[in-house]
Amino acid sequence: MGSQAGGASEKSAGGAGSGQLGRAAVLLRPLSVTAGAVFLFVAWSWIGMSDADYRPGSRWGGRTTAGWFWLGLPFLLLVGLLSTLPFSWIARRRGPGVGWLCLLTAFVPLLAVACILTTPMARLRAALGTDPPDGTEILRLRQIDSFNDGNTVTGVCSAGPEFVSRLTAAHGLRQADVDPGRFDLSGVSLPAAGQGFLGEGLTVFHDADRSQLWFQRRPAGRGR
Known about the structure:
The chain has 7 helices and 8 strands, in the order H-H-E-E-H-H-H-H-E-E-H-E-E-E-E. The protein is α+β, with helices and mostly antiparallel strands.
């Protein structure tokens, strides 16, 4: 009797476990919508978190994979899977076509905004904290994450004395000795002479002879 009872208990537990797995699997159907939602969520996360290594002609706007992306990928996959549930539910009730329509309606704007905010020009604006003049050319831009306190953006763009004056006035930058070596960027020769300026989190160096502005934006609180 005892062995029969034990066997019945094991079967009951196994049946309950199978039932729970079955219900979980139903929540993820149809799989095409689930897989699409996870892919779009991860793509949106990759773009929004991306670092940059830009020079004229770079593919994908110079976007590179951030270290934080790899570190948080398991969590991103989990959140992406959870984000599929509303679209999967709609697809089961109204059909896969309606589920995909809702999915694309939600994610296409998110992807578009993420792409806009991570263009080289958007990163330049964020680094300088002001809009550069029309026709400004970005010669090089690199953004790296620090894993714990924000991003560092280093680059060089075209700039005349008028814009430099406006930039220094807007941020209260003070003239100082700045070592051009801190802006070392492969593919662009360092300036030989110019004026350096320092401020909270922002260091710039203007090479008036070549009409180039070298800049480095570091997170607030980090060394200059």
